[in-house]
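Re: your question about TetR family transcriptional regulator

S., sorry for the slow reply, the queue was backed up all week. Below is exactly what I fed in.
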Amino acid sequence: MAETGSAVKRAGRKASTRQQDPEGTKQNIIEVASQEFALNGLSGARIDEIAAKTRSSKRMIYYYFGDKEGLYLSALESAYATVREGEAELDIAGLSPVDGLKRLVEFTFEHHHQHEDFIRMVMIENIHHGQYLERSSVVRDLNVTAIAKIRDLYERGLKVGLFRDGLDPLEIHWQISALCFFNVSNRATFSQLFARDFGAADMQARLKQNTVDMVLRFVAKAEAIKA
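Result:
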């Protein structure tokens, strides 16, 4: 009887939380689901397991997100929103073009290092050939602002003669993403293959500086880097 009473109380607390803070409940579900999808993929994640780790229930998950694919897409959108929100907070408009580019690269490297679940979810979505992102106008709109930020930075650098002509802001974004993404996606395999801890603090500091240097050499003129 005591166990039954405790279960009833827990269910009551969950119901009360849902009623008082539906947005908080949805965010809690997305956070837990993101970890499950990152660990097990779309096919391996289980709604029962997600519900058990949240303040909600299986029924409420279906109510908010429709089905597992809807929850997966919401988790993807949330992951992309997190990185774009961080970029939006960067005051690179107040920096010189070279310093602004450095800061953007540093931020991307640090963000990906600190958000491994984001990298895993992007890898999973690539396994699905981007078919779920194709459904999302939210992510497309978020990425438009990301490219616009790089375009503004690049055009400022061109105007003052610091950056090379003929570069595509989208391709600059690609190069930054590629270097920072690989740092997380292939860290474990590189560490095993070459018997070196690529996740160690000193190695991460070197890799981040290397990434900054490579992007600067790609975008900026030699005299701008020396300056």
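The domain at 1-66 is CATH 1.10.357.10 (Tetracycline Repressor; domain 2). The two ends are 76 Å apart (CA to CA).

Happy to talk it through on Thursday.
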